[in-house]
Amino acid sequence: MKNDFLPGSPLTINWAFTNKCNFKCSHCYSRNDPSDELSFEALSKCIEHVADAGVLSINFGGGEPLLRKDLTDLSEYASSLGLRVSMNSNGYLLDMEKAVELKRRGFSKVGISIDSHVAGIHDDFRGISGSHERAVRALSFLNDAGIETSISTVICRINHKDIDALTGFALQNRVRQLNFHNFKCSGLGYSNKDTLDLSSEEWGEFYRRALEVRDKTKGLEISLDDPIIALLGTSNKSSMVKGSICGKLSLNIKTNGDITPCGFIPIVIGNITRDNLKEIWKTSPVLEKMRHKKATGKCTECGRFDDCLGGCTARAIALTGDMNNPDPHCWYQK
Known about the structure:
It contains 13 helices and ten strands. By secondary structure, it is of the alpha/beta class. Helix 3 packs across helix 5 (131-145). The longest helix has 17 residues, at 200-216.
């Protein structure tokens, strides 16, 4: 990788340790995943393997993590091994008592998914009436418990013109970070892409405005995790690598222990219950290909390829079948 820092092991593991969910989101990538869940004993051993490999942090996801009754047992154990523990949740099951328990048992950060500042729009998108109100309350409980909070917003047709309102909403709710996630075409996201995804031109317009808001906003970190913003002469300031961080700084683990480069890339490169994580990190042909993507199509004529490396690998695979193809969201024209 040109000018990239490649650690000796992934810095972060995004661990989808349950596919169960109490929501019906229109873009869910894991809804149709039939994988079995690992037991507490098996997960504990896997967490030991992850810590021994030199991983710094685990982010629990799913599904809805709070639906696993042993969540805080796992978080406490992971924290005792020196891992920084965080979670992404829809917030529906989170009350003050649970927030205090999360803090006591190892969680340093919790992200709550909120896709609109308007309650009705969020509730329709997530498929659950009252989910917006519960998510806002969850943020308040977490803040009062002393846990760092963030809001995760999937940018799509329901909210791409609401950047200022979403930013004001995040500031109002005292979160440290607002994550604008680019729409992925995986799972139900693929099935509903024609109604939810933006055109490449609309993505260009969104990122121009989002960068303006990010640069002028104080007291809130606005994160844009899409490599194609390099086309606008900027990049992800917080990232140590160019292009996507998947397979360079992070890996994903599924409910059955299967390891994939990213939660949105359904290519299994090993299993944490039987394979050596550091060995996979160093020798996987799939990761090697992702770290040394080759310019094809319009990327061969774009002066920003060395910065964005073709954009989101997951989207390229989902919509074209080849990770080296240009990101379908890219608005570059010759």
